[in-house]
Design goal:
With 112 residues, this protein is α+β, with helices and mostly antiparallel strands. The chain folds into 2 domains: 33 residues, no CATH class; 56 residues, Irregular (HU Protein, Chain A), CATH 4.10.520. The protein is 36% helix and 25% strand. The strands form 2 sheets. A 3-stranded antiparallel β-sheet has the order 1-2-5. Strands 3-4 form a two-stranded antiparallel sheet. A hairpin with a 6-residue loop joins strand 3 and strand 4.
Length: 112
């Protein structure tokens, strides 16, 4: 699933493609800005987006075997939450109706 597919999947739930597109764009913007500034975004049950520092290290040129210095870098990391891991390990645990991201499987009518 790519970004356009995600927007199409959200459109019926959010009242149209424009609303879904705005929601996806807003979430991506907030996550990018927060992580880029050194913060983290934790979504309970889903996971955490954060910025990590990778230390400089020495690698090897595979052709010659010569040591090659590799500079330290900053990169984003996503760590899935325990609920996300559980659902991926056992998809049968997903609720038949309603939102899978809500623990206790709340359905569209608001009951579980």
């Amino acid at each position: 699933m790519n970004k356009a597919d995600l927007i199409e999947a959200l459109a019926p739930r959010l009242g149209g493609r424009a609303a879904a597109s705005a929601a996806v764009e807003a979430m991506v913007d907030v996550v990018l800005r927060e992580v880029a500034s050194g913060g983290s975004v934790a979504i309970t049950g889903f996971g955490t987006f954060e910025r990590v520092q990778r230390a400089p290290r020495t690698g090897r040129n595979p052709r010659t075997g010569e040591p090659v210095p590799i500079a330290g870098t900053t990169s984003p990391r996503f760590r899935p939450g325990s609920y996300f891991k559980d659902v991926v390990a056992d998809p049968a645990g997903l609720p038949a109706e309603g939102s899978a991201g809500v623990r206790g499987a709340v359905t569209e009518s608001g009951t579980g």
